[in-house]
Give the backbone structure.
Amino acid sequence: MTDQPRPHTATGAAPLPASHQSSVPADKLLHSGNAGFIIARSAQLKYEHREDGRKLFADVIGYMNQADVNGASFFFYEEAFGVQDRIHWLIHWKSPNDYALSLHMVDHDEKMIDLLESDRVVDDDGSGAWGRAVVEGTVEERILVPQHGLVHDEGGHAGDTWVDPASHQTSVADELLLNSANAGLTVHRTGQARHEFRKEARYYAFAWQNYVNERLAGAVTSYLYEETFGVMDKLHWLIHLRSFADYQALLDLERHDPDFRRLFEKEFITASKGGGSWGRTFLDGSIADTLLLPYQMPTSA
């Protein structure tokens, strides 16, 4: 009798977190919770070079992480349920000044130059290895800076980050916080606040985030960021999930939690501005989610 193929049984397990892409100890890693300045970079791989491109960028990420660029962390993600073969990086810095260190590496570090210019991607058209792997014009960067300024601390900003890191936005215990290094998956949410209601939009974003972080502590952690050097009043959330099941828990809050539902009905806009709930504070159709799964680095044999 011929053996029949066995049906695949899903385990529901989350991917390895992005921290497995770096050899830096967990307590030393920069991530979405403790960084002062984040670059969210994305690119579209050419279908014919999808495997070579992933391998190339995984090698670049691995090298950058071990180079100790003033503690910067580089994490590599796949886009899920979105555009096929679009890849993402979250690059975490203490301050914008550190970005110059990576530029110096690209221009002067022999190993980095070899990674970016060697024939790791076939069919040379003169554009360099990484350039052959991606569709022209698709590499994009957005600067994310932890939201600050709505709550004024009398003590002022302290520390070696550009602004207070995003973990300061929540009172949840540190051991229950998720971030870009230890989460199984991350939802990158963006939304365009209406200029007239820019503060109200941020108050709503914080209220939504605070409830989620406290109600789902240990399973979901959200941080809020400003897009800097980009579109004014473009807000970003990095919503970190322990597993796919926790995304369902997040959806269930809105469906079944009466206190959370009341948040959507709350009048965030004063009567002097015409009143209204959170829905008036954002441009319609501007809130979008991208699901990021940590790229699974090959394990050593």
Residues 1-11 have pLDDT under 50 and may be disordered.
